[in-house]
Amino acid sequence: MPRKVIPVEGIYEREEGSGLWYARFKINGKLVRKSFGRNRAAAVNYVEKARTLRRSGEGIVPETAKRPVLTIPELEVLGGSVTINDLCDDYLKHVQGRPDLFKDQRNPPQRLDLIRAAFGHRPAASVRPWEIEDWLTGVQRRSTRGDGRLTKKAPLKPGTLNRLKAHLSAIYQHGKLRDKVQVNPARDVKQRRMNNGVIRWLKPEEEERLRAALLSHIETKAHLAQYQEPLVRHRLCELDVALGTGMRKGEQYGLKWTDVDFEQRVITLRDTKNGENRLVYMIDDVVAAFELLRELNLGRRAGRNDPAPVGAVFAIGDNKKWWAQALKDAKIENFRWHDLRHTFCSRLAQKGVGLKVIQEAAGHKTISMSARYAHMDQTSLRSALSVLNRPVR
């Protein structure tokens, strides 16, 4: 008489009596099923190991039967020689080698440095999701003041934390594609919730103070080379272009004179964030700003290690220092250069301009991006609500 087989959850025969055994379990809502032929004991060990690691978190339980179920010691043996530093190096080389695909070449090295500081010498296979979660909760950076000096440590905002997590996930994904790791613990870490409800835009009185602060530099700081009148006039033009076009900072400061058509009053932006070329139409204020910029014809000092590209419109360098100083002098808080783009869209909405026009003017990929400014159109909103009034008798 054949020995009775003790049932085990997740173990079954394809056809009763066939002797061909399968194991199955669920992970992250996905069913994983693997065939073990006549080796029932191997099927039992497989499913029990998967359940144990799923419960304890001390290993990797894949969502496909093509990859093995591995404990942490097994992972360290397989990928113990590959560190987070190695993954960062490979990924950074990939990013810097494809500037056409990765348009942001400035932020990845900074984010990878934060990742290196936390996990750099760790074997990549040993990092667990809870460690990443704890790190994101406590990670801080040193903030820089307008004068370049460091202030006290500041916590990172949810959007920045999400981008850090995305970069950590990206280095693992890149490593998996090259068979250097078999895991990606960052995938199991939840995104931080972002509050995109409040849009910061430049109020008219703030703009007055900002322009006054810039003009005051001509008198109060004229003894300093960086506050000579031509430079201050140049900065006012930079502000006019930003407020009058809504271009992204990278788009504006990457402009070349060949992209500015005075006759047609149009700017051609090439290979934008959305991967497409687009046209920006110039209003009178913007045309005047570009004409003055052409007349000023300012550039960086000779001999610098970072000369401006040939034909650059804004050839004098980054605006970070003068912008921070101007905001401080104008007593404007919680305002970034990118908020000038929000100001451009908000002012259009306040004047009753439709969302489709705002989408085209700002170069938003989808109209849902433009819809964030719909609440600024109080005139149209009040007019629409007026239909609810009771008829006058």
From TrEMBL:
Key word Metal-binding present: no
Domain of life of the organism encoding this protein: Bacteria
GO biological process, one term: DNA integration
GO molecular function (one): DNA binding
All residue ranges annotated as the Tyr recombinase domain in the record: 197-386
Alphabetized InterPro entries for the sequence: DNA_brk_join_enz (IPR011010), Integrase-like_cat_sf (IPR013762), Integrase_catalytic (IPR002104), Integrase_recombinase_N (IPR010998), Tyrosine_recombinase_XerCD (IPR050090)
Keywords: DNA recombination, DNA-binding
CDD domains: INT_Rci_Hp1_C
Gene3D superfamilies in the cross-refs: 1.10.150.130, Intergrase catalytic core (1.10.443.10)
Similarity annotation: Belongs to the 'phage' integrase family.
Protein name: Site-specific recombinase XerD
